[in-house]
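Exercise (ungraded).
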Amino acid sequence: MFIDLRTLDDGSVLEADICIVGAGPAGISMARSLIGTSIDVLVIESGDMDYDDATQALYRGESVGVPYFGLEDARLRFFGGSSNHWDNWCGEFQPIDFQQRSWVPFSGWPFGPEELEPWYDLARPICSLGPRRKNAEIWDKLNVEPIVLDESRLKFHFWEIATPTRFGEVYREELRKAPNIRVLLNANATEVVSDAAAHKVESVELVTFNGHKARVKARHFVLACGAIENARLMLASDRIEPHGIGNRRDVVGRFFMEHPRDRIGSLATSDPFHLIDMFRPGWFGEHVFCPSITVPAEKTKAEQILNTRLQLLYVTDETSMATMRRFAQSIEAGRVPDRLAEGLWDLIQGTDITAYNLYRRAVHNRPMVPKPDGVQQVYFLCQAEQAPNPDSRITLSDRRDALGSRLPVLDWRLGELDKRTLQVQGKLLGGELARLGLGLFQFDPWLREGGTSWSPSMVGGYHQMGTTRMSDDERTGVVDADCKVHGLDNLYVAGSSVYPTGSNINPTLTLVALALRLCDHLKQRITERV
Amino acid sequence: MRRRHFLKALAAVTAAAAAGLPVVFPARDPLEAMRALGRTYLELHPEEASAARAWQVSLAEAGETGMRGHTARHARLDLEDGEVVTVDGWVLPRSLALTCSALALA
């Protein structure tokens, strides 16, 4: 059932067994997994079913560290959350990501990959992914002969890409029909209120744009608002604990991580086409797999580096491929393509490559490739793991949003290890490509220097993580292995904010797996009346 | 070997070694490009100066006909062993960097 808080009486008090704050991939996955149980669930969503400027503006904030996206642009605040602009590039964390690595301060999860594996199995179909595949099977299906890397130095790892799953659209009807699930829309959580001893959460305070206030009382509360907003809400909830709820050890908001994405260098080669063809995303049934290059765990240990991935991309001056893609999208959407005459001229100019791409697609189910003589440069882009850093953090500003809540301030910081990893990995890559006779690799200028600075074109992946990190030790973590906030009996956190380390792969699949695992824990607690 | 002959031979060697890799250095004069790389390498790694001098001697000993095989063989071994260095952003087998350095010192 969906309820608009604006239609309820001012001062309403709602009750539930579990209150989930946030209806993004984590919150919706949890609510779905509770359908059909005897547990009464209330999901709190700030937005409505569609995008709204005023609600989105509540995501504004300041950025004072490494340049980052506008905070209001980096996520979405309506039903379905940031899955509403998600491209659905996924992957599972690798075993090294869970390990305590002596050369990576603050690394290590409270559990290993085997703990998450069954939850990944359940999360995969929720994210529209197929079963887990081995690399050899993927290469075979992609009909590509991969280059033979020395696997003691580098290895392939695939992104798995499914049709974008808009959680708010795909799972809306299930939630609407579920008798034990209520979704409260236009309900902005402004404070989490604990008892006087700060041992137990008693309520979450809500407010609407039309001035209505409400309160939710529940046996268990789950914050699932994303890594920036989870920290913001906890820090802002300072009625009992002066530094914010669950923040006795001053860890809330710290350890903000992203996946820095930047060019690391280019390849001088006489045969760019071979590599471009091999590194293009290709179809495996209904799913797409995109190869990338990572460093094997043993080598990361030997080199004392992070776990980062590299993707091959290229620059071309030829436009027929982009035109074909634009035409296909327009036709699929039932529209006449824009700039039709200009586009047709592009296709005529590139008749040979257009015909070849149609042949590739029709006969071999292979993705489009550019015209070889149009390729100007082949380069590598990193999607880097970031080392956990307590000084990389979210704090609160004195400025407030339209509802009176203090704005978040992001101070994103990158360190020496983050940059050195790319210098080492680029060297490994260059050596391998030369060994295979594929070309000579040259670092981009910013990586030829030491220090911690990155190029001006560096961006994140819209992957905010780490601000309520998981640790058995409350001095280094906000939540424990069950995602329960240390020191509070009934407050939990779901989402990528609990990641102690963030790997190099997009975070959504893992956060859905963790949300399902948390749900199982809560079911047990409620069933056992703990 | 006289310097003029050495330079000529080295140019042939380095061009041949580079030809093993599908690459053209981004300069109009390959010899000058190699020399510049060698200078940069020695500036970045002054501890390699003695190795570069020894390399110069071994290239000279290999003679004009043997230089090509000598450099190419060592470059291949370097790549198999992961013995690569970074010079001016380029990731090169160490032997090639030493050859460039030998050229710079000649």
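Further reading is listed at the end of the chapter. For now, observe: The mean pLDDT of chain A is 94. Chain A has 15 helices and 19 strands.
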